[in-house]
Design a protein that fits this description.
alpha+beta; 8-stranded mixed β-sheet; 3 helices; 8 strands; globular; binds zinc ion
Amino acid sequence: MIQKIDHIGIAVKDLEKDTKFYRDVLGLSFEGYEDLPDRGIRIAVFNINDVRLELIQSISPDSAIATFIERRGEGLHHIALGVDDAAEMLAGLVRNGVRAIDSEPRKGAGGSRIAFLDPRDTGHVLLEIYEKSRDGHKRK
Ligand code: ZN
């Protein structure tokens, strides 16, 4: 079951510069930076009334974010739908003919389980199915 919009991901080239805008100009609550080396990205995390906003910068030339920015430029990258069971949600969607980028949920930030759907089936927005860690979301 979909519970909420968990977070919105925005692809940027200069994480420090854009963090200044969201933290210092907009005044959003800043939770910190997190490196996800296996996905080749570094993120800056903000919280707006329990919905996160993530700025995503590539730290590897062959990351999905590097490819995205090369093709489409900076900007809105994905919307993550918070669900109670990512595997069950994904299987149900696939049974209904929705194409998925990930055939099974994989490990995301903070012990979460995530899977991306194919934008051709979602109005050309990259949707992420997001199940937060059952031990609570810990961020350093
Ligand atoms: Zn995400």
